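Case study: Short-chain dehydrogenase.
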Amino acid sequence: MDTTFKGQVALVTGGTKGIGKAIADTLSSKGAMVLVTARTAPEEIIENQHFIASDLTKPESAEGIAKEILDKYGRIDTIVNNAGANLGPGGGFSTLSDEDWYNDWELNFLSVVRINKALLPAMIEQKSGVIINISTGAARQPIWDMTMSYSSAKAALNVYSKALANELGPKGIRVNIVSPGVVKTPLMLEFIENIAKTSNSTTDDAFKVIMDKVNVPLGRMAESEEIAKLVAFLASPDAKYITGSNYFIDGGASPTV
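Here is what the predicted structure looks like once written out:
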């Protein structure tokens, strides 16, 4: 049995589906007690996991999550800020309302800031901890007609993460970023289906449009478990000298090194 995280407490936001579920399952399989947040409960309760119902777009949710974790477990060792989604409509700047911009920034940036702010005092007191913020390759390579508001929020997340790593390094806390490319998740499959409907095409054609825009040399979407393995490594003692870094896991889609 892998006991890498035995005795540790981890939080995974958006942890009931897709990448978040894969991360939560991987950390709990390695011995961590994993607190999972989402708006709806998971279909099944996994051993070493505890579900907290929460809507992270509500400003007060972060304090409630932090209180429940610290009251019940007394510590927090790892925070994986995974919750996020491309909420804005496609079509470029003219289709995006103020509300569209606000919604993407609320979920993909401000919710992360609030969660970290609520839990960091406990990490600072412990003089140890790991924060991993899940970003996206689209923050570096935005698709103007698909991800404009989403990409901008995630780009802000990247800058914030680097600044936070610089501030917290002397306090024994590491902060890193994981930037997936195209990943086979329920949200991504729904996104592809919506493109197919609006363009009156097949899902295969819609998928090809995305892959052509992103240009993935490996020619396929990533599996959620592949992202989870990288996150688990960065959270582990094997990565104890890594902080302030952004790891792209995108099948080679990033055009630069």
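For the exam, be able to explain this: The longest strand covers residues 173-180.
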